[in-house]
Structures are given as C-alpha cells and as structure tokens.
Amino acid sequence: MDSSTLETRRLAALDRLQLMDTPPEERFERLTRIARRSYHTGIALFTLMDADRQWFKSHPGVSESEVARSASFCNQALRDRQAIVVPDARLDPALAGHPWVTGAPGIRFYAGVAVHAPGGFKVGTLCVIDTAPRRLDEVELDVLYSLGAIIEEELARHRPTPTASGRYMQQSDLTAAIQRAQHAFLAGVDERSAYAVVLDDLITLTGSRFGFIGEMRHDAAGNPYLKVQAIHNLDWTPDTQALYQRVREHGIRFERLDNLVGAPMTSGKVVISQDLDAEPLSIGLPAEHPPMSTYIGIPVFSGERQIGLVGLANRDIDYELGLAQELEPLLQTVGNLIERDQLYREKREQEKNLARATHYDALTGLPNRYRLSELFGCALVAAARRNTRLTVGLLDLDDFKTINDTHGRAAGDIVLCAVAERLRRSVRKPNLVGRLGGDEFVVILRDVEDERAYAHLLATIHEPIRYRRTTLQISASMGLTVYPDDDASVDLLLRHADQAMCAAKELGKNRYEHFDLARYFSRQERGRVLDRIAEALRESQFELHYQPKIDLIGRRVAGFEALLRWNHPTDGLIAPGSFLNHLEYTDFAGAVGRFVIERAITQLQRLDDEALDFTISVNLSPSHFLSPGFCSDLWHALQDCPVRLRGRLILELLETTALDDSNRVIETLQACRELGVQVSLDDFGTGYSSLDYFRRLPAHEIKIDRSFVQDMRDNGDDEMIVDAIISLAQSFKRRTVAEGIENIATHNRLIEMGCEYGQGFLYSRPLPAGAALEWARGFRWADIV
Fold it and tell me: What are the DSSP calls for 357-420, one per residue?
C-alpha cells in the first residue's frame, strides 16, 4: 500500500474520531496533567495531526492551539515506530533553528510518542516539553508509553452498536479489542482480569447480554473439561450474581459434555441455538445459571489445538455463523495468548516442582537439609530479635538398619513416612521439623519450658507400626542443644545436637541427651589459650607475683609463694585459673613450668644479694612433675644456684597428683630433696592419702586446703578436719601452712590449734616482686592483731 493511500486512510480514521476543533475534555486534560507532574515540566500536549496542521486537543503550558504541520515537532513521532526523544534541541541539526527553540517558549527538551486510533492508524501524539536539557531513562519512557496507551483506550470507547444489516462491527473496533486483549494478557495483570477484558469486548462487539469465556483443560485421566475464567450478564439477579462471585473467586468447572457448553468442545465446531427452550442440549447447566434465549458457542484454537471456548447469549437479533467468522482474528489472538499463558503456567509448575524437589524430601515431604537450613537460619534471626529460645533436636532411629535388612526397603520407607507424619502432628507451627537424610530427623522448638515435651516426642515415635502382618517396634535417640545458650551457627548447632544424639545412643538408646556446653566451651577456651601460649613465652608475657607467707609462731614474714600471671598486651593481667589447666599434658606445661622454677631461683638470688633469707614456694604442674624430664629440668635450673640457697626453694605438689603413681612420685620427690630443695604437699585434705603413704612421702611441709580454712569458723566439720591435719603433721614432724586466711578470727584460731604458718588476703594479696619486698620490709605483727 503506497504512502498516499495510507495517509488517506489515516485521515479517515482521524475524521471518524470527531475530535478535531472540539472543546477540551477532562478525560484528556487529566492525562496531560499527570504527564506534567510525572516529568516535572511545564508543558505536556495531546495533539491530533490532520493534513495541514497539528491541533492541540489538550495543551497545558502553551497558549497556542495549533501549528502548521510542517513546523511541528511531533511530525517525526508520527512517522517513527519508536518514541522520539530530543535531549537538547539546540544541538539537534533539524530543530536548532525552530522558532520555538530560538524564541518563546524556548524549547530545549522534547519527548513524544504516537497515539493510534482504534483502527491502528497514527492520528496524533502525546509529548512533554521542557525549557532545560534533560534525558529520560527507560522507566520514564515506559511511563510516557503507558499514558499514550491510556489515551488510545479513551479514543476507543465510542463503539457503534450492531445492526441487523449483517455488519456486526467495525474493523477498527475489532483491532482495538485485539490490542486490549494483548495488553491485558501481556501486561502482567491477574489472569481472570485479562479474561474479563476480552469478554467485555466480545459482549460489546456482538450486542450480547450474556457471555462467558473459559479455558479447555484435561483432568488426570485425559478427559476434557472447561474452566470458566470470566462470566458477565447485563441483567443480573441475586442468583446469577452468586454465580458471578463464584467465577470471580474460584472459576467454574464444566465437566459434562452433553450440553451446550460441551457440544463445541466435543465437535470443535460453532454451535448456534435460536430457541433454547426447545434445545435438548440446554440441560446440565447450573441451577443459578442466567436464563438464555439465544446462544452461540465458539471454540477457540491456537493453531490446530482447541484451547478454549467463548459462549454468548441473549442477543436482540439472531446469531449467525458469519459472526464467528468475523470474530476470528480476535479469537485467534486470544487463543495464542491463552496458549502462551498455559505454557507460562506449565513452566511455573515445573519450576515449582523443581523447587520442591530441591527443598523437600521426596519420600516424606518434609523440608530437606537444604531447606531446613534456610528455615532454621530465619528462625535463629527471629529468636535473636525476639529474645526467645530455640531447642534443636536431632533424632536418629534406633536399629533402623535391622528393619531394612529383615523386612526390606519398602518397610523402611513406611517407617520413615510414619515417623515423619508423627513428628509433623506433634511439632506444630511455628516450630519446624525436617529430614536430614537416612533415618535422621530434626525438630526446632521454640521456648520449651518443660522437658517432658522431649520425652513425649520419643514416646510418639515409639508407638508400634503395622506392616502387613507384622508389628514393627521402633524407637529413636535424640540429641538436644539450646540457643542462645549454645550461641552458634546453624551448621554448628546441628553438629552439637548430633554429638548429643551419639551420647544418647551410647547411654542405651530410646532417650535424649543435652549437648555438654561446659565441656564444649572448655575445649574452645583451651584451643584459644594454646594458640597464644607460644607467643606469650616468646614475648615474655608471663610474670610471677608473690604472696607473703607469715610465720605465726615467730610473728614475721617467712617467705613468699610465687604465683604465675599472664600479662597479656590486650586482655591485661590474666589469673592462672584461666589458662593453667589448659596447658596440662601439652608441651607448654613443661615450658611454663621451667619458666616458673627458673624465675623463682633468680628471685631467690636477688633476695640473697640483699641479705634476705625469705623462702620462695612454686607450684608444680602435675603433668610436668610426672614427666620423665622433670628432674633434669630442675637440675639444670639449679646449676647456677648455690647449694646453701637451694633449701629456700619449696616445690609445692598437689596431694591429688601425689596419689597418681605413688612409687614414681616418692622417687621423684626424693630426687628433688637430694638436689637440696624442699617439698610441700599442697591442698592437703582434698585427696585420700593413707597414713602409710603420708608417712612415706618425703615432704617437709603440709599446706591445708583453703576450702577447709575459709569455712572452719562456720562449719564444725571443717574445723575438725583442720585440727586433725595439724595434729597429723605434728605427729610426723611436718610443717603446716594454712592458706586462705581472710579474717582475724580464723588467724587467731589457727594459732590456738598450733598451725605454724599462714597465708591469705588477711595479710596481703599477691604482689609484683618489688611491691612484695616493700610490703615485707614494712610488715608489723601489730598491724594484724
């Protein structure tokens, strides 16, 4: 078709609109106002283009109502398929000299899209204009297209009514209906709204008073049925209104094919009835279905596949086969769109099934490990935000392999499904239950206040399961850990619950056990300490503090106990209770032990240089003392220490260590005495030394454990134990030292009982070497009493 013919048809389409030189209309004024606000510009125009001029139907921002077509900015938008955007008119060769650019209103920016008449011809433009340069992004351009589409819908509102002459509709109206169908299905509106748009057009185009449109589907057996997606009746009654509401909410499913609805579906042909009262196929419709006098049923195809059905009824004139033929372009478009929608729905269903296979266990339907981790992670975040507790339980079926081996895998699957269902019933939302794999299940429970809940879960699983003629008896072991007491990640919490489950198995099965948090934290702390000890030794972060030991008989300072401290550069001064136990039975125990002995000997030599005869006691690491190299370590440390000073070094050994290997301990202590040092039995009373063993131990001194000393004034049993230890030491001619003296009453009572030496906060806390010596020089017995 040549350009002159197209222009003639375009002008005819413009003329049919009957809008040229008409007063302003609010429906168009509203849209240009929206355009001005959307783009923050002063000018927005809806224009119509005839042969010689561009006339402004809506022109806020400019006083002119028309310009010559040859001088129109919008002429190019009328010719192009795409929007025309001019960021800066002064830089555009075609527009730089335009009067509206060089003079008022001083246009710099222009963007315009073509507006189509219902027949598809471009009859005008929607444009926005600004006096400053600017650019549009894709979103802003989409808004302009959308506003243009709304104007086109307004232009399509005036539709001629059908006549009895055989001309049922204008081509332009049919074209507009096709465009609206495409827009409804492709714009992402909900499915039923899209069908309703199409049905509204079909009723209007044909002059019908009732209609429905549905999608042809097949059940699991392959039998066809019609899913009515939209229904409309111009003469509603309360009964038919109820039917309409059902369609809007759920759709209607027609499965019977022996009626007017089913006839086009089985034959694939148009069905027409001019007198439904005499039509036997009218049976089978819902009781509340609107009354129908005349009817046409038109199958909808996509290619050669029947995909839907349109039913129209109650027209003032008869339905004819030519009507279906005239509607064919619209119905073919609708068929293609329905198929596209079906393919999209099938794809979504496949994606949903894939997602389900990815996230849920195929056998039990429970969340699998991957999905459970996601849900568990969300539950942890919520628990932290709400300050609630989460119990993580990992269940493992006891002797499940025996069931599989004895009765077969089918029996095992039945057991797993039964356990899953029992857990699902017992663990209500928002709690979680999932299957990790194999015979392992996980439960996530919120704020459990009664531990009987755990026993109830196990009891539920323990119920017998019938399999064929056999009763299967099952049980489960469960490990538990509780967040935030166990403040760990999802994976670590599951691992801790698994460790507790293994403990439950070892303790007899069909029971639950809690994760040992104290032991876990101790292992964590041990690892953290050991990671830093080498650096502490290398950088001399260890130091000795000295606590005075008072001669209660001679009323003087007798010596000091050297106590290890870790002067960490960031954590500050760390007491030995925080790290010494973690060093036991590692190479660091010997390294730190050698440091303590060597530093104490060095301090003894400094005291001797100042003519001070104080003793220094050091605590021995049990594992270092019992190691084969201890005597060698002590010998090397004493090489530079004069023999006369060695007797002032007292090695303190825990009574419990002395009991580990009596012969070896006695042999090692004897070797220490031969090197010239003294031996003290520390924390005496906490072990179970026999009198014979006590007699044979080559110890010079007995230190009474602080737990007895501190409580002796309030606990008669503790006082009796202290008195017995003092008497025992006196009988075997051993010195006694009471540690943990914190008040004057205990001090006085110990003197009455015959205790020779005392040590505790009553006298002084442990002090650095210089401060300890200064304290000793200023000591006065009178300050105590």
Answer: HHHB-TTT-SB-HHHHHHHHHHHHHHHHHHT--EEEEEEEETTHHHHHHHH-HHHHHHHHHHHH
